[in-house]
TrEMBL record:
Its main location: cytoplasm. GO terms for molecular function: calcium ion binding; protein-arginine deiminase activity. Coiled coil: none annotated. Its EC number is 3.5.3.15. It is found in: Cytoplasm. Residues 82-239 form the Protein-arginine deiminase (PAD) central domain. It comes from Loxodonta africana. This is protein-arginine deiminase. Belongs to the protein arginine deiminase family. Residues 249-628 form the Protein-arginine deiminase C-terminal domain. The lineage of its organism: Eukaryota, Metazoa, Chordata, Craniata, Vertebrata. It catalyses: L-arginyl-[protein] + H2O = L-citrullyl-[protein] + NH4(+). Residues 1-80 form the Protein-arginine deiminase (PAD) N-terminal domain.
Amino acid sequence: PKGAKTFEVTGSSQVEVFVVYDPARVTEPTGKARWPLDTNVDVIVSVDTASKDLNDLKVKVSYFGQHEDSALGHGVLYVTGVYISLDVDTGRTGKVKRSRGNKKTWRWGPEGYGAVLLVNCDRDSLTSTEPDCADNQLVSLADLQDMSPMVLSCEGPDKLFDNHKLILNMSWSDSKRLRVFCARGGNSLSNYKQVLGPYHLSYEIKRQPGEREISFYVEGLAFPDTDFLGLVSLSVSLVNTGTLPEVPLFTDTVAFRLAPWIMTPNTQPPLELYVCRQCDGCSWLHEKFLDDMSYLASKANCKLVICPQIENRNDRWIQDEMEFGYSEAPHKSLPVVFDSPRNRGLKDFPYKKILGPDFGYVTREIQFSRASSLDSFGNLDVSPPVTVGGKEYPLGRILIGSSYPKSSGRRMTKVVHNFLQAQQVQAPVELYSDWLSVGHVDEFLSFVPTSDQKGFRLLLASPSACLKLFQEKREEGYGEAAQFDELKYQSKRSINEMLADRSLRSDSLYVQKCIDWNREVLKRELGLTERDIIDIPQLFSLKGSYAEAFFPDMVNMVVLGKYLGIPKPFGPIINGHCCLEEKVRSLLEPLGLHCIFIDDYLSYHKLSGEIHCGTNVRRKPFPFKWWNMVL
């Protein structure tokens, strides 16, 4: 009003009124004094409950002259309170709770926040031929357990929504990586409608009269990768349809991170041991091998799964074909098999026989070229949890063999390497394995669990340790004891002959230099000391410019808890015992481990592989939650 200089403001009981001012320019009134009508004074109105009717809340402003006690006039603001909130499991407890905190960002660590999405890569429907994330619609109610719940709260007078609407939306880039289903209750698939996803970027939510909450399920479609950091978001907007153009009055946004694929090291307890049945000229030997695997699995209280010949199609290298891992959200953990791009006889086994209800599947295929030996997953391993220079890796670090440090040679294909790097939680370490004929890291290293504070030891194949052992035995008078003495189908080599073989010695010393280079990388990248490493005696010979194990490669073992299935080396027999076996027992059994030596000579070793190459183990997930990592 004309002549007004000051004002007072009051509100209904459900309305909070705040006066905000610049204390350098405005003095807060005391006694009967009032607020000046000044551009440095703002009035903020807040409502903490939703209205029952339109305009049922009021804010009254009374205007006064410079000295008058009676008001010159009044202004009334009619307010309708509406509560709009999009909520997900930002606290990572497995349940959705209303949150007024920061929902649009995602933070790592034990004090972090932000919801998690599983990639729905299992196959819950027995009639489907593809992973659930490839389906365009919900085909099973069990599918909902692989998704993350989301709740929209929309409280307010029903009449408000006559000229206002709620719009759920996402970006085009995110539409390739998630889908949203609206749930209207009931136990029928028809009660769950896909509302967002590929080519569907927005959805007008049909709020029913009196409806205060609307439930949704969010489905992840893609793992993090080189072109995708793993973060996606969804937004809901309250839009005024009574104006042209329509105006969004409020937007609430929530962020998700797609759960990574995680590998499990030998230190995790075994759940299932996989091995292939072979039907060839040595089938009787292979049946003995399967019996040995059965015994080993029973000792470790682990289920044995035998892949029949009709499914493996004469491909026995099941470790090379796939790697078992898992993916986890606060509400669910999902085992996920990673299918390698090697695509030999076992190429269909992971997809056709492992993929199924609550067992996911992921793969990365090589475009425009063929896979090399280094793309097989015998060339993929993971360390136990380590701390390196104060930085913790609570899920361990992935180990990949390559031609590094050479500028040329065989390397793991980029599409697989980049995928592993993009998971973030097990930062890969590149090792040098291209000196081997097959070129896999499992030919020269393994990890075994221990019950001491360290929790594990790194085992490295060691030609130097083997030559030293043989030298000691010769000095003790056992120079005529022979390697392969127990084998009828292999020429025997006495200790004296092996030590006198300049070519064998030269080859093994070259290999030792290659392994020593890796030793220093592993010490540096895994924070290890010499006390954490055990040298396993092993000789190698060169075929051309690449190395092969001279006798069965003992580090290429299968680890089932404290039980180790070790390739039988057929070493020199001294006092009735294999001196190589005795040496390995003396190194490992004081740590509480049980060494079980298994004959794989004809069925695996002569075909350039060993027990680890011919087996695969699914293990328990880590108890540590990946989202608690500090990156």
